[in-house]
Write a structure and sequence with these properties.
The complex is a heterodimer of chains A (about 160) and B (about 425). Chain A is an alpha/beta fold and about 160 residues long. In chain A, about 35% of the residues lie in helices and about 25% in strands. Chain A is built from 6 helices and 5 strands. In chain B, helix 5 packs across helix 6 (about 135-155) and helix 8 runs antiparallel to helix 12 (about 305-325). With about 425 residues, chain B is an alpha+beta fold. Among the domains of chain B are: about 5-40 and about 390-430, no CATH class; about 85-205 and about 305-335, Orthogonal Bundle (Cytochrome-c3 Hydrogenase, chain B). The radius of gyration of chain B is 21 Å and the shape is globular. Chain B is about 45% helix and about 20% strand. Classes of the chains: A alpha/beta (about 160), B alpha+beta (about 425). The interface of A and B includes residues 94, 105 and 109 of A.
Chain lengths: ~160, ~425
């Protein structure tokens, strides 16, 4: 049986550490040979806006979202479910969109049958101060750790 | 205050670009004062456009808004084309209408299904509504996605398109690229009808006001990008006379300027104004659809904006389908012209209403002066007047219901603040 597994990086590459989710997906793509666990079909996606998660939820059995969260200490990696993510600061629902936790929560309500599992691999960061390209050293060091946690989730799901 | 007078104070009206508040002072059963205070930080776009090249302006101004960047791009392009004597016609003009239709759908769909419908159904937000009305939220998101697809295909991406330039586009799509959109656009057109039928059964508060409606009016079309500025109280003028008839004024409690008709005061732009001033420009099919739910011009109930937005979405899909079915690849993706010292005026109908741009260029095309009047600024005074009119009803309602009704009244006009008014904290003070 083939299970559709989607790994989604979310972030803004021009806001410094906020782009860590995208960096983790880049890292995983380079390791794609490792990711192709026998009967797990893995695909990658990148979104800048949480609204972009909704169609991905609809079409995935396992969705792993890699994102930055505002928490200390910077560089720590956490694996969360949707409810746990809701406890982190997020933007409000608005005509410009809404935050990752809200989008994932909405997705599970709207598409309950389609998604078997959603997990969030969260990398703690300090609040970005403005335009910046690249990650701080401590968050850059967390990229490989986060990628390993994603692989572990995918492998455990495949069992 | 004394003798049972009350103060309704909303301390925290979050809005997309900043934050706002609402204060209603009630004296007896009337409102003595209403203040929609917007403390959104100043953004200085008009100032930092000075000295920039005219060709940069569409991309810079698109960053003013993440939900209606196309409107900013199009108003800027039209103003520059007016300054340089460029006329965009034929298929390039049609493509612009298609892009604009996509943006209307993107904006209206999110507002109608996710931000405004919960008000009518008694839910605190779209997330709560989704638990019991998931099929309508799914439908709304699919309709929005159809609009996103138009903008992504024509603009290069769903938000802040990168393919728009003065005189047209950097690249025009082929017919083969556009045609795959058609099945979903046809589905969405029908989905708008179904949604309209459902939402027309909502209970609408009975408020009706004698607004001065202001919108563009085109010779033949329901307005997207072109037309004269007309009003329900007799204005009919070219865009270059906008400043002679409209002014913006500062109020001490708000960072956002309040616009007014010089001769009279507050006015309303946006879907309700467009609908009332251009009903005869809608196709017979769309007019019949409106009639089916009892909507006709003039409609003066601001709460029925939600229905008018669905009518406008149906119209947008109708236009989009028509453009694609008739499309032929233009010989060139844009029209160009040499720069010259001049002043240009541009106005388009953003989802929330008339968006006016004026630029003065030197002979090399450098911006010497810029003026941008956004729909939210134009409607603020009217929103306050709506709340004046609503005050007696608010007084009769329990605290939580009064809060919700005030939020709903603000959201009727989908200002950038509307989204966050679900998070209002309303304080009622007994003097």
């Amino acid at each position: 049986m083939t299970r559709a597994t989607r790994i989604v990086g979310i972030g803004q590459p021009f806001a410094g550490d906020d782009g860590v989710g995208l960096a983790v997906v880049n890292e995983l793509e380079q390791m794609s040979a490792l990711v192709q666990v026998s009967f797990v079909q893995v695909s990658f996606a990148r979104v800048a806006d949480a609204m972009g998660l909704l169609p991905l939820i609809e079409s995935s059995e396992l969705l792993v979202v890699v994102d930055a969260v505002l928490a200390s200490p910077a560089g720590q990696v956490k694996v969360l479910d949707v409810d746990e993510l809701s406890s982190f600061p997020s933007c409000r629902a608005s005509s410009h969109g809404f935050g990752v936790a809200k989008a994932l929560g909405l997705g599970t309500v709207l598409y309950p049958a389609e998604t078997r599992e959603i997990r969030i691999v969260a990398v703690c960061i300090d609040r970005p101060r403005g335009y910046a390209v690249g990650l701080s050293p401590v968050v850059a060091d967390a990229v490989r750790v986060a990628a390993a946690r994603v692989l572990s989730l995918v492998a455990s799901c495949a069992r | 205050m004394s003798n049972g007078d009350r103060i309704i104070r909303v301390n925290y009206l979050a809005r997309v670009e900043g934050e706002g508040s609402l204060l209603i002072k009630l004296k007896g059963d009337q409102a003595a004062e209403v203040q929609l205070g917007i403390f959104e930080p100043p953004r200085f776009f008009e100032a930092f456009l000075r000295g920039r090249a005219h060709r940069e302006v569409p991309d810079i101004t698109s960053r003013i808004c993440g939900i209606c960047p196309v409107a900013y791009m199009m108003s800027a392009c039209h103003a520059m084309e007016d300054a340089l004597g460029i006329r965009v016609t034929g298929q390039l003009r049609a493509l612009r209408r298609l892009l604009y239709a996509g943006e209307w759908v993107e904006s209206h769909a999110l507002h109608v299904f996710f931000l405004h419908a919960p008000d009518f159904l008694g839910y605190p937000d779209g997330f709560a509504m989704a638990k019991e009305h998931g099929e309508w939220i799914r439908k709304g998101l699919r309709i929005k996605k159809a609009g996103n697809a138009i903008v992504a295909l024509l603009g290069g991406r769903e938000i802040h398109p990168v393919n728009v330039r003065i005189g047209g586009f950097y690249r025009a799509p082929t017919r083969a690229e556009l045609e795959p959109l058609l099945p979903e656009l046809r589905w969405a057109r029908e989905a708008c009808t179904e949604s309209l039928m459902w939402m027309s059964t909502f209970s609408f508060p009975s408020l009706e006001r004698d607004y001065e409606f202001v919108a563009l009016r085109h010779d033949e079309e329901y307005p997207f990008c072109e037309g004269r500025v007309v009003s329900s109280k007799g204005l009919d003028l070219p865009l270059c006379e906008f400043d002679a008839h409209f002014e913006e004024e500062q109020v001490p409690y708000s960072n956002a300027l309040h616009a007014r008709v010089r001769e009279r005061g507050a006015y309303l732009c946006g879907p309700l104004a467009r609908f009332n001033l251009n009903f005869d420009r809608l196709s017979p099919e769309i007019q019949a659809l409106a009639a089916k739910v009892g909507l006709g011009a003039p409609c003066r109930n601001p709460f029925k904006n939600i229905l008018v937005r669905l009518i406008e979405m149906a119209h947008a899909f109708e236009q989009a389908i028509s453009v694609i079915e008739r499309y032929e690849l233009p010989a060139e993706p844009c029209v160009s012209a040499p720069t010259r010292a001049s002043t240009g005026f541009g106005g388009t109908e953003a989802p929330r209403g008339l968006l006016y741009h004026r630029y003065q260029l030197d002979d090399e095309g450098t911006i010497l002066d810029a003026k941008i009047v956004a729909p939210t600024s134009q409607n603020q005074k009217t929103i306050e007047e709506d709340l004046f009119a609503l005050a007696p009803e608010l007084l009769q309602l329990p605290h939580e219901d009064a809060t919700r009704r005030a939020e709903q009244a603000i959201r009727n006009h989908d200002p950038c603040i509307s989204c966050a008014t679900h998070f209002l904290k309303l304080r009622v003070e007994q003097a």
